[in-house]
Design a protein that fits this description.
The complex is a heterotrimer. Chain A is α+β, with helices and mostly antiparallel strands. Chain A is built from 5 helices and 12 strands. In chain A, the strands form 3 sheets. Chain A has a 5-stranded mixed β-sheet with strand order 3-2-1-7-10, with no helix packed on it. The radius of gyration of chain A is 25 Å and the shape is elongated. The two termini of chain A are about 30 Å apart. Chain B is an alpha+beta fold. Chain B has 4 helices and 9 strands, in the order H-H-E-E-E-E-E-E-E-E-E-H-H. Chain B starts with a helix and ends with a helix. In chain C, helix 4 runs parallel beside helix 15, helix 5 packs antiparallel against helix 6 and helix 9 packs across helix 13. The relative contact order of chain C is 0.12. The chains are: A alpha+beta, B alpha+beta, C mainly alpha. Chains in contact: A-B, A-C, B-C.
Chain lengths: ~300, ~200, ~550
């Protein structure tokens, strides 16, 4: 039933993936993607501001250096001057950088304040990092517990191809003509667009980091500690990322795929996923794909929505 | 560089003096190292106002907080169990709304799904991290080792007060507990009292 | 001055050089011999670490796993970093300090010559421990050079070997630092005031204080790892109530000053070389010293910018962002002063000058990406990607290592008495400078496009730039064989004798002794002649 629903959705999304500029890494890509959230666009903007400031300073400094190298060479008969300090000059190039720094710290600060503000979120997803897969638990959706809980790991085709000496050409692993080698999972994280989603991160064994470039940030998942972050995706599409903190042997093989769908479609997906309402105290496993982390909990359908 | 007889004595004397000073420095460093703990405690609690203890807040302290009925804060509860511990663990409610300064009680259930008695420890964590200083627990199972016999389920309370001084921008707090197996205590348990061993009973 | 030189030449005839290979090198207390030992060791480690880099780049040549298992790849990235940092860059600077500091301040030797011997001879044992862990059952360290727990504790018993190796390297560094401080503060020739010292000596004095301050912190951090693994403590173990993030705070409290330990002596070297070949005094000598000192101070209060994504409170992130941005100011002063030193000079471009100029340009590029990394919201994207890899290789390879190469070309004629081949030196320079950019510049693009660091395999979209980077890597690696060739040729085969003042514009005491520098120099303190010093005039 799940499959039947997912297949056409995937096709629609596949079409989207082409239209969204640089949602996923492209060959010869030079720059950071703009991403698909308001904050990721702002992150891109501040990246570009600081980049151009650096380029401007570089042009001036390196320009002067090259002028000096061509004008003041001994072979051209240059005679060395003997001056060796100037308080005025030194004051100038202490003060100008300070002003430039203040100028770039200001937008960075305001953006950081907004990125840290998780208030007003309408949905909470708990992300747990394992060696070497991710568990997603939908904890809260508009005050209700959807009771969805699954493990997402590297999809089988990539997994076969990435073995030493597999003989499988990584370029042959594609979805709709785009290479998904090492960037595809068996079960993507499905999220609604236009909803402020709060993520809570933790890990079971070692430190991992959850990173989807199109969302504009990464966050460490640390055993025993919870971290939070938020996003609000504006365009439907499939957004790919990877674990960004060295976490052992298969660190390079635990991708993240976020499938963003319109809210109505998401609700449909949710109903299809949720198991039949189980009796409250049953400690039964939900229906995860993996047996390995056998004791992750939280299928607690006994919610008491308070608001 | 050749030493004369008289100088030889004084060099020896100097060496003894240096040794004495060096020993003094070693002793002072050692004492200073030990003094760090109380010094930091004083610096943090008296001067900087940082709460150090993870332990329960005293009742007197708790009752001194004024309830702020004009403000509502959502407290979410998250539960995790480390994959090495065969327990199930969940919160009775996944979220409550509280007024800062109000004493609230919530319940958690832990079930040992194995046949053996196991000792577990819960590790608390609060997000956002800056808010953890304003989250006061007066009662919590995370302060002690939890011993669950095979198949046993236990209901455990947490009583907490959100400090009314919680920064205005914070509307949601998440309290997370992760249960870990306490391997050392579990092993000791089996040694001291084999009868609690779940296998023996079955 | 002339008196000292004559005295030394006379001395050279019956040199007191110990006879026999073992006796000369194993038991040596001579700062020049120990300096040579450090430099040779550093070169050896540079090639050991470099061959690991070649394995990394070979595996990353194209997508798919072709050569090594992921575990081995992780060992390579971890040990490559440890070997390059503690085995190549730091010993090279200590070796340069050993050779040059006594000669630059007119001292007969280091203040504590026996400790000097000890601090070197610890190193081969430390690295034997570290490298032997690669051949152990359960394999070597795979958790990165930062050894973050809990991952680093998952390793086998190699963890203990690595930790003991780090302890020994730390002991060696601390002893070296104590020696350098004692030498600079006590052994200066009469009249060599602190503000007449060459800037290389100044940079080492400040670096030595950094070393003494932070190496014990690293030792403490790794000792806590050791007790967590073997003695049941829970400093960093969440299950026992510990905090894995605390390790990162402690580590980077060491780690950030460590970064400057690897670059401040490079600043000193470049500040020696540029005035020599511009034939003009260094611009803003005192400002340069203050800049080094402020960078050293700032290095202690910016550590958490390595860990913006661990979930620090907002106030912490803002503070570390602002503090980090401040570093750009003294660093900027240094770069502007180097450019101004060149202005209205009379420049020639021998190999040391070429490397120094490349240092200024490429280190500044590394500084730019460093400034970008300081911006927290953008760092959320850059963190732990190839952008970071590109950044720190620009500051460490084209920064620290280019400065070391510049200094070897600059002082080698003084050490061995022969000129190196200028033609092959320049070929080495151009090969290195082009290939290093082919190697590291595309890594900026990879990081921005979304490639995490420390991964053995990647999506096809990253293939092109990785291939370019790998080609640059092999090219850069091969170019360094030229460097060995140039050095061996200069030491053993070159027929061209070097004069006492090797470079026309060179100033300072080291150029007043003959080339090669005799085994014992300044056995009697030289008479300081201000016009012979680079900074003779104290008012500047």
């Amino acid at each position: 039933m799940r499959r039947a629903l997912a297949a056409p959705a995937l096709m629609v999304l596949g079409m989207f993936a082409h239209q969204v500029a640089m949602a996923n890494p492209e060959p010869w890509q030079l720059n950071m993607p703009k991403g698909v959230t308001v904050t990721s666009n702002e992150v891109h903007d501040i990246h570009m501001i600081v980049l151009w400031i650096c380029v401007a300073i570089g042009v001036v400094v390196f320009g002067l250096m090259f002028v000096a190298m061509f004008r003041f060479r001994k072979s051209k008969g240059a005679v060395a001057a003997t001056w060796d300090h100037s308080t005025k000059l030194e004051a100038i190039w202490t003060i100008i950088p300070i002003l430039i720094l203040i100028g770039s710290a200001w937008p960075a600060t305001t953006l950081l304040l907004r990125m840290a503000d998780t208030s007003g979120s309408e949905m909470t997803v708990k992300v747990t990092g394992y060696q070497w897969k991710w568990r997603y638990e939908y904890v809260d959706f508009f005050g209700k517990d959807p009771g969805i809980n699954f493990v997402s790991s590297l999809e089988a085709q990539s997994n076969r191809a990435r073995q030493l000496g597999s003989g499988i050409d990584p370029a042959s692993i594609q979805v709709d003509g785009v290479s998904t080698y090492l960037l595809d999972v068996d079960k993507p994280l499905v999220l609604p667009t236009g909803v402020k989603i709060r993520f809570v991160f933790t890990a079971d064994d070692v430190i991992h980091a959850w990173w989807v470039p199109s969302l504009g940030w990464k966050q460490d998942a640390i055993p025993g500690i919870i971290n939070s972050a938020w996003t609000e995706i504006s365009q439907p599409g499939t957004y790919r990322g990877q674990c960004a903190e060295l976490c052992g042997r298969d660190h390079g093989f635990m991708p993240i795929v976020v499938k963003a769908v319109p809210k109505a479609e998401f609700e449909q997906w949710m109903t299809a996923q949720a198991p039949a309402p189980a009796p409250a105290p049953a400690p039964a496993e939900p229906a995860p794909a993996e047996p390995a982390p056998a004791t992750a909990t939280t299928n607690a359908p006994t919610t008491a929505p308070q608001g | 560089m050749r030493k004369q007889v008289g100088q030889h004595e004084s060099v020896k004397h100097d060496a003894r003096g240096i040794a004495r000073v060096a020993l003094g420095v070693v002793a002072a460093s050692f004492l200073f190292g030990f003094a760090m703990v109380p010094l930091y405690r004083i610096a943090c609690e008296q001067v900087l106002g940082i709460k150090l203890s993870e332990g329960a807040v005293s009742a007197a302290e708790a009752s001194s907080m004024q309830v702020d009925p004009s403000r509502t804060v959502v407290v979410e509860f998250m539960t995790s169990v480390n994959s090495k511990l065969p327990w199930a663990f969940k919160a009775e409610k996944t979220r409550v709304e509280v007024h800062p300064g109000e004493l609230t009680e919530v319940w958690f259930d832990a079930t040992n799904q194995s046949a053996q008695a196991i000792v577990g420890n819960a590790v608390p964590s609060v997000a956002p991290s800056a808010a953890s200083a304003f989250f006061n627990k007066t009662e919590c199972f995370c302060f002690t080792e939890q011993v669950l016999a095979g198949g046993e389920t236990r209901r455990m309370p947490v009583r907490f007060i959100v400090d009314p001084q919680l920064p205005q921008g914070t509307h949601t707090l998440t309290l997370s507990y992760t249960f870990y197996a306490n391997e050392l205590a579990t092993r000791n348990l089996a040694l001291v009292n084999p009868s609690v061993d779940g296998i023996a009973k079955n | 001055m002339a008196h000292a030189a004559v005295h030394d030449t006379h001395h050279d005839a019956h040199d007191h050089k110990p006879q026999g290979f073992l006796h000369r090198w194993l038991f040596t207390t001579n700062h020049k011999d120990i300096g040579t030992l450090y430099l040779v060791f550093s070169m050896l480690m540079f090639f050991v670490g470099g061959s690991m880099a070649m394995i990394i780049r070979a595996e990353l040549f194209e997508p798919g796993m072709q050569l090594v298992r992921p575990e081995f790849f992780n060992e390579m990235t971890s040990v490559h970093a440890l070997v390059m940092i503690f085995g190549a860059v730091m010993p090279a600077f200590v070796g340069l300090g050993n050779w040059m500091i006594p000669m630059q301040i007119g001292a007969p030797d280091m203040a504590l010559p026996r400790m000097n011997n000890w601090s070197f001879w610890i190193l081969p044992f430390a690295f034997t421990l570290l490298l032997s862990s690669l051949f152990m059952p359960g394999a070597g360290p795979q958790g990165g050079w930062t050894l973050y727990p809990p991952l680093s504790l998952q390793g086998g018993n190699s963890v203990a070997f690595v930790i003991f190796a780090i302890h020994m390297m730390g002991i060696s560094s601390i002893m070296g630092a104590i020696n350098i401080i004692a030498t600079i503060l006590n052994m200066r020739a009469p009249g060599m005031d602190l503000l007449k010292m060459p800037i290389f000596v100044w940079s080492w004095l400040i670096t030595a204080f950094l070393l003494i301050a932070v190496m014990p912190v690293l030792a403490g951090a790794v000792t806590m790892l050791l007790t967590d693994k073997y003695f049941g403590t829970s400093f960093f173990n969440a299950a026992g109530g510990g905090d894995p993030v605390m390790y990162q705070h402690i580590f980077w409290f060491f780690g950030h000053p460590e970064v400057y330990i690897m670059i401040l002596p490079a600043f000193g070297i470049v500040s020696e070389i540029i005035p020599t070949f511009a034939r003009k005094p260094l611009f803003g000598y005192q400002a340069m010293i203050y800049a080094i000192a402020s960078i050293a101070f700032l290095s202690f209060i910016v550590w958490a910018h390595h860990m913006f994504t661990v979930g620090m409170p907002l106030g912490g992130e803002l503070y570390f962002m602002y503090a980090t941005m401040l570093i750009a100011i003294p660093t900027g002063v240094k770069v502007f002063n180097w450019v101004t030193t060149m202005w209205e000079g009379s420049m020639t471009f021998e190999t040391p000058m070429l490397f120094a100029i490349a240092f200024v340009i490429l280190f500044t590029i590394g500084g730019f990406s460093g400034l970008m990394l300081a911006i927290v919201p953008a760092d959320f994207q850059y963190h732990d990607t190839y952008f970071v890899v590109a950044h720190f290789h620009y500051v460490l390879v084209t920064g620290a290592i280019f400065a070391i190469m510049a200094s070897v070309y600059y002082w080698l004629p003084k050490w061995c008495g022969n000129m190196y081949s200028e033609r092959w030196g320049k070929i080495h320079f151009w090969m290195s400078v082009i290939s290093v950019n082919v190697l590291f510049f595309p890594q900026h693009f990879l990081g921005l496009a979304g490639m995490p660091r420390r991964i053995p395999d990647y999506n096809v979209a990253f293939a092109d730039f990785n291939m370019i980077s790998s080609i640059g890597g092999f090219w850069f690696g091969a170019s360094q064989l030229l460097f060995v060739g140039v050095v061996i040729h200069a030491v053993y085969f070159s027929k061209k004798r070097a004069q006492a003042r090797v470079w026309e514009g060179a100033r300072g005491l080291e150029w007043t002794v003959p080339s090669p520098a005799p085994h014992h120099t300044f056995s009697e303190p030289p008479v300081i002649d201000n016009s012979q010093l680079a900074h003779g005039d104290v008012t500047h």
